[in-house]
Amino acid sequence: MPLKRAQEHHHISRDLELNPVFSREPVKVPRYALPKSEMEPETAYQLVHDELMLDGNARLNLATFVSTWTEPQALRLMGECAEKNMIDKDEYPQTAELETRCVHMLARLWNAPDAHRAVGCSTTGSSEAAMLGGLALKRRWQHRLAADGTTAKPNLVMGINVQICWEKFADYFDVEARYVPMEGERYHLSPEAAVELCDENTIGVVAVLGSTFDGSYEPVAELAAALDDLQERTGLDIPIHVDGASGAMIAPFLDPDLVWDFRLPRVASINTSGHKFGLVMPGVGWALWRDEQALPDDLVFHVNYLGGDMPTFALNFSRPGAQVVAQYYNFLRLGFDGYRRVQQTCRDVATRLAGEIAGLGPFELITDGSQTPVFAFRIRQGIDAFSVFDVSAALRERGWLVPAYTFPENRTDLAVLRIVVRNGFSHDLADLLLADLKRVLERLEHQSGPQRSADDAGGFAHGAETKNPKRPGRH
């Protein structure tokens, strides 16, 4: 439990009490201490089951990018592999083989120049994968400057719209984060602005394919061209890492002519989230490098105490193999055409729903879901009776989790709602959401003014958090 919530609950001394109807005997259970004795499995199950009824309905969670539905066969495979530790490749060689197959499939999907030479690994999610990509960039920079004996601090250039994991990376691994600010109607990185922040200590530039703020793609090819020009003028050779947490599993299927991946020689590494538009339940991400040179060998550790030589590059050691198996199942089950159909349906639902919401009157679209199936919208000027935070709270009364939040520095005046359309969110559910939105608007329009602000928004922006302007190293 987070520290703040633990403190809030500290004053609660009443133990949990089970209704005897549901248990074999009346029992009291302490909330924040281990019980003195054991209990029947069904009793423990019922206690936990009943408390979990207070959670929101995951299928109605339009804030998260994470998969909330998968086929029963994938769940069955995950159950069969629940005990398998992904790090034990010598003990579970076929699970390790499926991981390798997934890496090669992704290398081909992302147009690696030689899929056999591309290197990669599974991770616990795209945040870990992004940090591995950042660490490889930093180590390559260190190798380049080792002969000079420099003590300079490395920096990483990115748009201020990056997911919060990149701020964590910069803080945890002592890298200066240089953010390209939002300006006017530009809500992500600009190639020109990014190049201006680069110098001899820049380890790389992060390009986001699918911004968490509004779902838009950043212009990776234009960024690569700007960095090519920078190298011609100054000699600085700065690589790109593509954070494709969402878009790297959308663009190959729906935007095949968009050049963003290893077709660009300057793209050194890519990460994605298997448990987002990779369609796996939470717990798997992927990090790939274009070749062995892009991943310094001194970052790879070799252990033998599990039996056999186990090369590993990860922030985590033990982690579940079940999600890797489920990823391979999805690749095998759907193939290219199946993924294309799933992602196209998500985009169709997103663009139609965005158009319907724009037609209601009070709202104005920031994006329309035509890139990643994600769109953001704000309240039009002149609508003074309610705020986006009022709308979010009203929809929550019906079970819909639609986040409301403000944009980062330079556009903190912009408050939006965002909807993520995932596999399983159908046209039918979109119609039900639209009907509920119309219903709450009828009530909100009669308010004398907004009743809620950003302070009432809750904590479910899912990566669209405002970066901390006071953090040391901020450029």
From TrEMBL:
Example GO molecular function: pyridoxal phosphate binding
Modified residues (N6-(pyridoxal phosphate)lysine): 276
UniProt keyword annotations, A-Z: Decarboxylase, Lyase, Pyridoxal phosphate
UniProt-listed Enzyme Commission number(s): 4.1.1.15
Reaction catalysed by this enzyme: L-glutamate + H(+) = 4-aminobutanoate + CO2
Domain of life, per lineage: Bacteria
Region Disordered, residue ranges: 446-475
SUPFAM superfamilies in the cross-refs: PLP-dependent transferases
InterPro entries named in the record: Glutamate_decarboxylase (IPR010107), PyrdxlP-dep_de-COase (IPR002129), PyrdxlP-dep_Trfase (IPR015424), PyrdxlP-dep_Trfase_major (IPR015421)
GO biological process, one term: L-glutamate catabolic process
A single Gene Ontology CC term: cytosol
Necessary cofactors: pyridoxal 5'-phosphate
Family of this protein: Belongs to the group II decarboxylase family.
Protein name (record): Glutamate decarboxylase
Organism, scientific name: Kitasatospora aureofaciens
